[in-house]
Amino acid sequence: MIYRFDAIDTFFFRSSLPFDIGAENSVECIFPPLPSVYTGALRSCTLKNYSDRHDLNKKLKVGLNGIMMNGEPLFPVPRDLNMKSESDRKFAYPSFEKNDISSYPLEFLYCESEMKKENIIPEGAYIKKVDLMRYLNVKNLNCEMISKEKLFKTEYRTGVQIENTERTAEDKKLYTITQIHPNDDVSVYAQTQGISVSDGTIVKFGGESKSAIINSMEDSLDMDIRLDDNEKFFKLYLATPAIFKNGWIPWWIKNDMTGIFKYKNKSVKIKLLCASIGRYTPVGGFGTYWDEKEKCLKSYPKKMHYAVPAGSVYYFSIEEGKPEDVLKLFHKKCISDYREHCPNGFKYENWGKLRYCDRGFGYSLVGKLTDEQKNDLEKK
User: Fold this and answer.
1) How far is residue 336 from each of residues 14, 17, 238, 278, 361, measured CA to CA in Å?
2) CB–CB of 204/210 below 8 Å?
3) Which domains does the chain have, with CATH numbers?
4) How far apart are CA 365 and CA 330, in angstroms?
């Protein structure tokens, strides 16, 4: 089931940057919200229907999430693409060159001559699902690029700290926050399992006690892809931010950049060859837990993590295993190492049952490579 969240007025999703007296007097709003925001909203509006909170946490799963326009999901522009001309809206796939002298740990780099060409893709741009599927299938890309100015407006609000006892304004404690006002045809959404919410439910969503109306939609996100039986290479596109234990590299990839990924009876050995990673996204916030002694919910500050941003792309070679197993293990799966309900977010005991993240971080899609890219990567 897909749940759509429509703003009643505005949204406020605070970033994890510090907001302290004497340091910063303004706080930025991020959009779309982090995957964990959907978990908190859905959990809060259905908690009364579950006598066991642990049972609710176990059943609730969040998959793909992000921005939706006119009922159609949008995806961040893949970070390995560049645009040669704004007039014809044509994107170009990257080429690779051997990494011989750089301290960069991967075997290949994006071709320097390509990287020097003008790249006019604005920060925070999106493409439609049909164009993302063309990218994953390495077809010619001549598509509409949707900038954030077409999705929402930014509003600024100035406030002042109020003294607790006399309820008067405190001197020299002025601050500014930014809020998001989505266009009428823009919503945010989350793909979920194990939970049921009535249409028209109003829930607190994000910070500043902002509210949203939840409505359900049929899950019709058909994004199937096929790899050839003799395929040697593939790419992974991250549709949502991913938190990995080792920074931008998943925990199961070792120092030689190879790793074995397995789940149940499926297993592949792959090698990370190249990657296009954006600036990290800080992920913090507050969580809740059930105190057995006092029989009540308590909140706690989560440990700060640095997530690989949505739109990042990884290129792999298949060392052992079948392409069909690659699709079953990675395509439309949340491959983030982060676990919301585990100490420090990471726990590896009994890992076979906890392979995939169930909170929407690291939703990945498998894609093909062009013939030119394959030729570059085969020059080892």
Assistant:
1) 22, 22, 10, 16, 6
2) yes
3) 1-76+126-221 (3.30.70), 85-123+224-380 (2.60.40.4350)
4) 7
Alpha-carbon span 151 to 183, nearest angstrom? 6
CA distances to 178, 261, 268, 314, 340 from 328, in Å = 41, 11, 10, 17, 24
- Spatial distance between the Cα atoms of 197 and 213, rounded to a whole number of angstroms: 11
The pair of structure tokens assigned to 328 is 């079953």
Q: Alpha-carbon distance 143 to 81, whole Å?
A: 13
C-beta of residue 72 within 8 angstroms of C-beta of residue 129: yes
Digit-coded pLDDT (tens) for 170-205? 766 777 788 899 999 999 999 998 888 889 999 989
- pTM for this one? 0.89
Q: Residues 6 or more apart from 133 whose CB is under 8 A from it?
A: 223, 225
Task: Name, of 29-38, 234-243, 263-272, the range with top average pLDDT.
Answer: 234-243
The CA distance from 79 to 309, in Å, is 10
Beta bridge partners of 244: 247
Parallel, antiparallel, or unpaired: how do β-strands 72-76 and 126-128 relate? Answer: antiparallel
Least confident of 107-111, 208-212, 229-233, 351-355: 351-355
DSSP 172-213: EEEEEEEEEEE-TTEEEEEEEES----TTEEEE-SSTT-EEE
pLDDT band, residue 338 (cuts 50/70/90): confident
The residue ranking higher by pLDDT, 124 or 185, is 185
Q: Amino acid identity of 109?
A: L
Proportion of the chain above pLDDT 70, given as a percent: 82
Instruction: Please tell me the predicted confidence (pLDDT) of residue 48.
Output: 56
Structure-block tokens of residue 112: 């320097």
CA 162, 163, 169, 175 dihedral sign is: negative
